[in-house]
Amino acid sequence: MTTGLRRFRAPLPATPRVERCEMCARTLLAGHPHVVDTENRGLLCACPDCASLFALEGAAGGRYRRVPDRYVRAAGFVLTDADWEVLRIPVRMAFFFRNSALGRPVAFYPSPAGATESLLDVDSWDRVLAANPHLPPAADDVEAVLVRRTADGFECFLVPIDACYRLVGLVRTHWKGFDGGTEAWAAIDTFFTDLRARSRVVGTG
Questions:
Q1: Which of the residues 63, 98, 101, 120 could staple to 107 if both were Cys, CB 3.0 to 4.6 A apart?
Q2: Which residues partner with 180 through β-bridges?
Q3: Which Pfam families does the protein's record reference (predicted)?
Q4: For residues 179 and 176, what is the distance between their CA atoms, to the nearest angstrom?
């Protein structure tokens, strides 16, 4: 996903840059969709017409997959501090998705250096998912389970994979020093406030 990540962390150009579809070169509007290149692990900007070609699973032999626009918040998400330790996540946030090329789930967390992979205990992650049956399954490669540790416990979202890389870009751009600084945490808090506002809630009984 390094191609996609560079897009979110690149410095702003001196003059506004016209963003174009990376498949047909059409000019893109803000909020355009993205397509995952599963072969090269890249995230491509796309116009709605090109993105729609890859909405169906198996299109283009499965190489390209449109990133969906599904946001879900799992109320009552069950995860303990001990679970978090077993998952080997050294920071307060991480996202988990199934890499179809590897045939297994993987875990990444945002860091000042970008998206950093954490060696995931797959059995432990499967137990976390089993303890939260209300959380819908994430589509391979294009959706992720995003977990944030707070002072009150853990919150969990099912989000498009490009949302995770927007979060990585925020951390990459704003993080200063050892603890990130006020600006970085304000940006992170705003990101999660927006997530809560746009998410459908599940698990409320």
A1: 120
A2: 176
A3: DUF5947 (PF19372)
A4: 7
